[in-house]
Amino acid sequence: MILFFDTETTGLTPGRIIQLSYIMTDGQTAVAKNFFFAVSYIDPSASAVHGFTVEKLEKLSGGKTFSCDIDEIYDDFLSADLIVAHNVKFDIGFLIAEFCYQDRIFRYNESFDTMKFFTPIMKMERSNHRGYKYPKLGEMCEFLDIYPYDITRKSRELFLTCEVGGHDARYDTVALYLCFFEGLKKFDQLKEIGLKYLQK
């Protein structure tokens, strides 16, 4: 089973997770989950990007914090054979920190980073012409012909909501999910991962 995930946070360092979304799939069926978490502060620069405020999150989360859902999150991530994210090290770092705040250890099996995988494939030159730059999630979608309409439609289908847009972890998780499965059709390394972790 593969788990695709994304987070939205209060900022970079230090920061807390304010939204966690993930899709678990065996290749035949998919289960999507989304969590909002109440926090006491959000960096203004982060809020300007994702649009979440302390007040909005209090309402969306029903006042629940990460600790309220930590057991479910732990079980889901550990049950996955592979977890996938775009810049996976970044998101895992926040999950590790959240578990540390509760004197818990975040555990998972294997991870895969679409950002690093597609860097040598997309060959986007750095401005200084020294190697290739990491593609943004939107750039990866464009490269694979995954369009906003496709992402929005699939987001509504999986997460059963119409309130999904860019810089919402649900939207970005679905974008990641669609890109991965489109890549399965085109790149041998992804095909091998599919054969290993998904039902035939």
Walkthrough of the structure:
This protein has helices at 44-50, 54-61, 66-79, 88-101, 114-122, 137-143, 148-159, 169-184, 188-197; strands at residues 2-9, 17-25, 30-36, 82-85, 110-113. The chain is of the alpha/beta class. It has a single domain, classed as 2-Layer Sandwich (Nucleotidyltransferase, domain 5), CATH 3.30.420.10. It is globular. The mean pLDDT is 94.
Topology:
Blueprint: E1 2-9, E2 17-25, E3 30-36, H1 44-50, H2 54-61, H3 66-79, E4 82-85, H4 88-101, E5 110-113, H5 114-122, H6 137-143, H7 148-159, H8 169-184, H9 188-197
Parallel strand pairs: 1-4, 4-5
Antiparallel strand pairs: 1-2, 2-3
Helix pairs in contact: 6-8, 7-8
Q: Using DSSP, what is the number of strands?
A: 5
| CATH architectural designation | 2-Layer Sandwich
CATH homologous superfamily designation = Ribonuclease H-like superfamily/Ribonuclease H
Count of domain modules: 1
CATH class: Alpha Beta
The percentage of residues in β strands lies in 15-25%
- Following the backbone from N to C, one meets helices and strands in this order, namely EEEHHHEHEHHHHH
What separation lies between the terminal Cα atoms? Answer: 12 Å
- Portion in helices: 40-55%
CATH domain fold name = Nucleotidyltransferase, domain 5
* Major β-sheet strand ordering: 3-2-1-4-5
Task: Give the structural class.
Answer: alpha/beta
